[in-house]
Every structure is written in structure tokens, then in C-alpha cells.
Design brief:
By secondary structure, the chain is of the alpha/beta class. It has a single domain, classed as Rossmann fold, CATH 3.40.50.620. It is built from eleven helices and seven strands. The strands form two sheets. The chain has a five-stranded parallel sheet with strand order 3-2-1-4-5, with helices on both faces. Strands 6-7 form a two-stranded antiparallel sheet. A hairpin with a 6-residue loop joins β6 and β7. α7 crosses α9. The radius of gyration is 19 Å and the shape is globular. The mean pLDDT is 90.
Length: 288
């Protein structure tokens, strides 16, 4: 009995600890204002599911509306399962879920074009971000909440740093600024939460989350960067947190934010005359 009680107390303490850290991030960085409509980018994975659960707990205290958006990229044997989990979690909490499909929007899924690129992650990421923002704007969302955790943030930072792609530094940090009327600002409530702790939360709470990895992920630079960072962390604990703090103290995202225009073809926000999505679609439509 004592052992069971101790486990229960540890379980409750961990949940309180995690919720407090996320709540503190929301408060410290003013991620959500009263009356806003926040759309969670809900893939069904553990990070987005935790984001949905925590924001659902906080919405009364912070007085905001909550809904979710799920994107089906057309990856067989993978995304459909995640979408089912997203639907169940949203339904359990009474949160409206808006679903969008690559096939409907672009006429093809990632499986249909994966052989056209060295890594399918390149077109997938560009098209997914585009569709997520377009959908959030159309439904009147004030913010998009993503499940990016500490590991994701550090990986993205190092990848951009290695490529000398300083324009992307404006995307880092717990929130982005509104730099174009059609570009919905993003917030990251899990910004300083290690991926390992998100996984512990999902297991302890018996949350139905999609743990499978995308079949194309092994082809990406992110996968290699993740392995590198995990090796460093195992040899020198808290390395990831140190990198995150270094970025926060050294770089000022607002100084690296590009000026945005509107794409001449689709009218969506773009840093040039024709957006990356329209360039991709032109390339793809010439082949398929």
C-alpha cells in the first residue's frame, strides 16, 4: 500500500511540476492574451497532445478560446494513426478539430512525390507550415500553438547556425511576432521542456499519443542533428539546456526577422516575389 501511495504521489508531483513550468512560460513570455483564439497544431504525437492538454487546463485561467488543426500529409501507414489519436484527444476535451489534407489542397500526398527529392522532409515541411498558417488565418486564430520542445528548438537552432541561415533566427524563441497581417504568430508552450519529460508525461498518464516516427525522418538533417545532440547530452548532461540559454542570451530574433510581402501567385506571406510553396508546386506539377 505504501509503495502504491508513493507512486501516486510521485505521479501527481510530476504532473504539477510540468504544468507549473509550462504555465510559467506562458506567463513570463506573455504567450496568450485574454480573448484570443489559439489553434493547436495537433499531429497526435506526444508533444502536440501535451500542448493541447495543458492549454485546455489553462484556458479558463487565461480566458482564451481553444481549437486544434490537424494536417494529413498523405504518408501511408503513419499519419492516419496520428490523426485518429488527435481526433480522440480533441473529442475527449470538447475541442473543435479542423482537418486538412494535402491531397485536397495540393492534389498529391507526400508519398506521391517522395522520389522527387533527396529528403521528403523538405517539401513536407514547407507545405505543412503553409497549410497550417493558411488554415489558422482562415478560421480567425490569433496564435498557433506548436508542440516544439527544448530538443526541437536546439536542433533547429544548430541546423540554421550550421547553414548560416540567420534569417531563420527570427523563428526561434517561445513566440514569434506578428510581421504580416496574414502570418499568424506562433507560440511554443513546451519551449524549455525536454523531450524526455514529455514522453514520461504521456506514459505516466496513459495518454494515447502517436509515438511512431515518420518513415521519411531518417533521411533528414534533423535526424542526424538529434542523434548528435543526444550523444553530447549523454556524455555531458544539460548540454541542450546550455545551448538554449546561450541562444536566448546572445541572439535577438527581432533583428533577424525578414521583411515579408505577398506572393504574386497565391497571395500568401512571402520573403520574395514568389513564395517557396508556389515554387515547389510548379516543380512538382511539371513532373506528376
Amino acid at each position: 500500500m505504501k509503495t502504491g501511495k508513493m507512486k501516486s504521489e510521485n505521479f501527481n508531483n510530476f504532473n504539477k511540476y510540468l504544468e507549473k513550468r509550462i504555465r510559467d512560460t506562458v506567463e513570463k513570455y506573455k504567450l496568450i492574451k485574454p480573448g484570443e483564439k489559439v489553434a493547436v497544431a495537433l499531429s497526435g504525437g506526444k508533444d502536440s497532445v501535451l500542448t493541447l492538454h495543458i492549454l485546455n487546463e489553462l484556458r479558463k485561467d487565461f480566458n482564451f478560446d481553444l481549437l486544434a488543426i490537424s494536417i494529413h500529409e498523405g504518408i501511408s501507414g503513419y499519419r492516419r494513426e496520428g490523426l485518429k489519436i488527435a481526433e480522440k484527444n480533441a473529442d475527449d476535451m470538447g475541442v473543435e478539430l479542423v482537418k486538412k489534407f494535402f491531397k485536397d489542397e495540393f492534389g498529391f500526398g507526400i508519398d506521391d512525390i517522395s522520389n522527387l527529392y533527396k529528403s521528403a522532409c523538405i517539401p513536407c515541411g514547407v507545405l505543412r507550415r503553409y497549410l497550417l498558417n493558411k488554415t489558422a488565418y482562415e478560421i480567425g486564430a490569433s496564435k498557433i500553438a506548436t508542440g516544439h520542445n527544448l530538443d526541437d528548438e536546439v536542433q533547429s537552432f544548430l541546423m540554421s547556425f550550421a547553414r548560416a541561415d540567420f534569417r531563420k533566427f527570427g523563428k526561434f524563441g517561445p513566440k514569434s511576432r506578428k510581421i504580416h497581417p496574414k502570418l499568424v504568430p506562433r507560440i511554443k508552450p513546451l519551449w524549455n521542456i525536454p523531450e524526455r519529460e514529455v514522453g514520461i508525461w504521456a506514459v505516466l498518464n496513459n495518454i494515447g499519443a502517436h509515438f511512431a516516427e515518420c518513415p521519411y525522418s531518417h533521411m533528414s538533417l534533423r535526424s542526424k542533428t538529434k542523434d548528435f545532440l543526444n550523444k553530447m547530452e549523454s556524455e555531458e548532461p544539460r548540454t541542450k539546456l546550455a545551448i538554449l540559454k546561450s541562444f536566448e542570451e546572445t541572439f535577438k530574433p527581432e533583428k533577424t526577422t525578414p521583411k515579408l510581402y505577398e506572393c504574386n501567385k497565391c497571395g500568401e506571406p512571402s520573403s520574395s516575389g514568389v513564395c517557396k510553396v508556389c515554387e515547389l508546386l510548379d516543380e512538382i506539377n511539371e513532373v506528376i
